[in-house]
Write a structure and sequence with these properties.
- The complex is a heterodimer of chains A (156) and B (80).
- Chain A has 156 residues and is an alpha+beta fold.
- Chain A has a single domain, classed as Alpha-Beta Complex (Aldehyde Oxidoreductase, domain 3), CATH 3.90.1170.
- Chain A is 29% helix and 35% strand.
- Chain A contains three helices and eight strands.
- In chain A, strands 1, 2, 3, 4, 5, 6, 7 and 8 form an eight-stranded mixed beta sheet that branches.
- In chain A, helix 2 packs antiparallel against helix 3.
- The relative contact order of chain A is 0.25.
- Chain B is an alpha+beta fold and 80 residues long.
- Chain B has a single domain, classed as Roll (Ubiquitin-like (UB roll)), CATH 3.10.20.30.
- Chain B is built from one helix and five strands; from the N terminus they run E-E-H-E-E-E.
- In chain B, strands 2-1-5-3-4 form a five-stranded mixed beta sheet, with no helix packed on it.
- In chain B, a hairpin with a 2-residue loop joins strand 3 and strand 4.
- Classes of the chains: A alpha+beta (156), B alpha+beta (80).
- Chains A and B meet through strand 4, helix 2, helix 3 and strand 7 of A and loops of B.
């Protein structure tokens, strides 16, 4: 009998949502590849967050140094993923977030939702990204090229 | 840690004002008293917005503190 619902996972390589430093394109490729064995999946939606080189009062952001209240964040991520999987009837959802330094142009967040049809995966992906941005206890310190830092503020 | 002390974790921009590894204070009974003490000891925190989490749950009203509970000061999140 075909497996209907794949057990959701927080991440790809291990049980934590956090990876040290940038998320590599290989990590993302591997996550997509891994799901090919679940042949009841018809749609993957992915969100990739990349560190933007903002200019703040003629200072350029060269990297973001991420810190988290890890235990709370892991717990919260699990809640959010499990709620999203149930609400949108997903086959699976994955979340990876960077900790520590991520340079401008590198990837700091990866979210994947997979379902039978496109509508639920697309909507679930947007929903999960918003919840992550609002509710995960993670903070970004924007490191300025000429020295010093500014605390990142998330926009709506 | 002595029994009459509490350990407080702080994150994000609060770590410009207190140690990022956390700090200790004399035990207080509830979160309202905790805030008063924090503002006395670290006046720089007065101008910053933050929530208090007790044992990893954000509390929105005055909450009784038990010995050995984990307190964390959480400024607005900015992940992703």
């Amino acid at each position: 009998m075909p497996q209907r619902v794949l057990k959701f996972s927080k991440t790809m390589p291990d049980s934590s949502i956090f990876v040290h430093g940038a998320i590599s394109a290989d990590d993302i490729a591997n996550a997509i590849q891994r799901l090919s064995e679940f042949q009841n999946i018809g749609a993957h939606s992915i969100f990739i967050g990349q560190v933007r080189s903002d200019a703040i009062e003629d200072q350029i952001v060269s990297a973001i140094d991420y810190a988290a209240y890890k235990e709370m964040a892991e717990q919260k991520a699990l809640e959010l993923i499990s709620e999203t999987v149930q609400t949108y009837q997903l086959n699976t959802a994955m979340v990876q977030h960077s900790l520590g330094m991520v340079k401008s142009g590198e990837i700091c967040l990866f979210v994947l939702t997979a379902s039978r049809h496109r509508k639920s995966s697309l909507e679930a992906c947007a929903y999960l990204v918003e919840r992550i941005k609002k509710e995960l206890p993670v903070w970004g310190k924007e490191i300025l090229e000429k020295g010093g830092h500014i605390w990142k503020k998330n926009t709506e | 840690m002595e029994k009459n002390r509490i350990k407080i974790l702080a994150f994000g921009q609060l770590t410009d004002h207190v140690a990022s590894s956390g700090f200790e204070m004399d035990f207080v009974q509830d979160t309202d008293t905790l805030k008063e003490r924090l503002y006395e000891n670290y006046p720089g925190l007065k101008n910053l917005h933050f929530s208090i989490a007790v044992d990893k749950k954000i509390v929105n009203s005055n909450t009784h503190l038990a010995a050995g509970c984990e307190i964390a000061l959480l400024p607005p999140f900015s992940g992703g």
